[in-house]
């Protein structure tokens, strides 16, 4: 069966869970050869290739991208998806916490992109898709550090799109709303009444439900695909209508 990613090779960071895993499966299911770079890449379903790498560690990033390129026979698509969260106002996180989260969410993306760009330049269908977030622009309370990190991801998307457009490398991002992933389930589990918290979270969504990881994966897949060859520097909201309807997550 022919798929839209036949013959293409992809690296997905944070590809062992949630949005990253759904994206890796989406790409592989449509013909791509896919490597997942993750802290814990064990136990991935076939045909995904797991490679251990920490996006905060340049040596493991370089080795991980090189191993992926070697195993996949090249690189056409990079999905910069690895990310961590943080709760708090600007008074709520100390300098160490700021450095820790920005090191994963922002500098991590830069490290992986730096390692991948020389390989992407050799592709006829090169694309980078960054997983950003609605917090980049929505003004979500108690998420100062996480919002700053994703604001940087959105700005980097535009800057990288401009820098690499004449090299034939497209760079876009998705802005998910609240997605039903292990991350969100972990947060819900910390609530006094997780069921009530989930119901309240669902009620705040324009659609009345959380976004599915597969819906974000499909958006990333479109932006990464040769079908989106005329699209770069673009943000695609996958937020249940939150941005389009001018609503706030809380
Ligand atoms: P998740 O926790 O389910 O998965 C994240 C994956 O990233 C994990 O497999 C983890 O091991 C990996 N990872 C974390 N730090 C890493 C590092 N230093 N190096 C390599 N891998 C690392 O999370 P998710 O909900 O799927 O989130 C994925 C991305 O989507 C993140 O960038 C997040 O900010 C973004 N996002 C999530 C939501 C949501 O509601 N879940 C909404 C908007 C944006």
UniProtKB/TrEMBL annotation:
Xref: InterPro entries: NAD(P)-bd_dom_sf, Sc_DH/Rdtase_CS, SDR_DHRS6-like, SDR_fam
UniProt cross-references to CDD domains, sorted A to Z: SDR_c
Alphabetical keyword list: Oxidoreductase
An example molecular function term from Gene Ontology annotations: oxidoreductase activity
Any Pfam family: adh_short_C2
Similarity field: Belongs to the short-chain dehydrogenases/reductases (SDR) family.
PANTHER family (UniProt xref): DIHYDROANTICAPSIN 7-DEHYDROGENASE
Name of the protein described by the UniProt record: SDR family oxidoreductase
Species this chain originates from: Dactylosporangium aurantiacum
